[in-house]
Amino acid sequence: MSIGFVGVGLMGGPLARNLIRAGKEVLVFDLSESAVTQTLDAGTSGKAAAGVDDLAGCELVFTSLPMPDHVEGVMLGEGGLLSKMQAGTVHVELSTIDPQTSVKLQTAAKEKGIGFLQCTLGKTPAHAEKAEEPMFVGGDKGLFDKLQDIWPIIGQPAYYMGGVEASCAVKLISNMVGMANLAVMAEGIRAGEKAGIDRKMLIELLQDTGARSFQMDVRGPWIAADDFKNRFGLDLALKDVRLGCEMARAWGLDLKAMEAALELYKKASAEGFGKEDCNAVYKVIGS
């Protein structure tokens, strides 16, 4: 099976490398030459594409891009990749996008006789590199079953969610909860500072209480060490929380805690911390 991969950044790169390590023929495209080089270093079965159109002959195309409009720009319209792919091929969309965009992609693919699956990812780039990324897949169950040999290569486990809307929703909900949790933890650290408690000690103490969380275990020590190196960028976190809140509003939900978290990430981005890790939301707490 010939495979095309558009977008080999923090999340897409590890998945593409997993396919190459497994000996799959993968044609890779990314605007970043260094990202392509890093991906192709995984093995000899990967090749660089000169442009997106080179992937039109692939039987299976993955997209992993930062924003919904980036996916639409690559795949849709008269010049989009869907217009050049052959009937019977499959598009698997890996990006964190809103349900409405996913439905639009699914509809456009169906009109061309192309299969479509939305596959959102549940953990970090480090998990993805080890093929330990949980995947939430929505779309046609027959297509999901058809790719049973592919899922364990790029990550595991693969959960079938039903519709593409559910696939998008579970990732957005996960990121909204995670980022709201991070913001609340940052507020707690600030409160601890006012009480005269060392940040590192506070994290260690809280990890032995009901306050413990994934964000505390992973990003709490980073905050305590003033480590804001970008692992998952604040601007990407802002995008995900924004999309999640927009999704909820469209369903008539008023998620007050999530909306409050959204405002904190907006503030952090506006103050210039967007390219740092999402834990940089700590920097605007109490300011």
What would you say this structure looks like, in words?
- The protein has an eight-stranded mixed sheet with strand order 3-2-1-4-5-6-7-8, with helices on both faces.
- Helices cover 48% and strands 13% of the residues.
- The longest helix is centred in the middle third of the chain and has 31 residues, at 164-194.
- It is built from twelve helices and eight strands.
- The protein starts with a strand and ends in a 14-residue tail after the last helix.
- It is globular, with a radius of gyration of 20 Å.
- It has helices spanning 12-21, 33-40, 68-75, 99-111, 125-129, 141-146, 151-154, 164-194, 199-206, 214-224, 234-250, 256-273; strands at residues 3-6, 26-29, 46-48, 60-63, 90-93, 115-121, 135-139, 158-162.
- The chain folds into two domains: 3-162, NAD(P)-binding Rossmann-like Domain (Rossmann fold); 169-284, Orthogonal Bundle (N-(1-d-carboxylethyl)-l-norvaline Dehydrogenase, domain 2), CATH 1.10.1040.10.
- Helix 1 (12-21) links the parallel strand 1 and strand 2.
- With 287 residues, it is an alpha/beta fold.
- Helix 8 packs across helix 10.
- The mean pLDDT is 96.
Globular, elongated, flat, extended or rod-shaped: what is the shape?
globular
Strand content: 5-15%
Helix content: 40-55%
Provide the CATH superfamily of the largest domain. Answer: NAD(P)-binding Rossmann-like Domain
Query: How would you state the average pLDDT, rounded?
Result: 96
Uncertain stretches of 5 or more adjacent residues: none
- How is the CATH topology of the largest domain named? Rossmann fold
Question: What is the end-to-end distance?
Answer: 54 Å
Helix/sheet category: alpha/beta
Tally of structural domains = 2
Computed over alpha carbons, the radius of gyration is 20 Å
Series of secondary-structure elements, N-terminal to C-terminal = EHEHEEHEHEHEHHEHHHHH
Number of helices: 12
Number of strands: 8
Query: In the CATH hierarchy, what is the architecture of the largest domain at level 2?
Result: 3-Layer(aba) Sandwich
Order the strands across the largest sheet as they lie in space. Answer: 3-2-1-4-5-6-7-8
Main β-sheet: number of strands, strand sense, barrel status?
8 strands, mixed
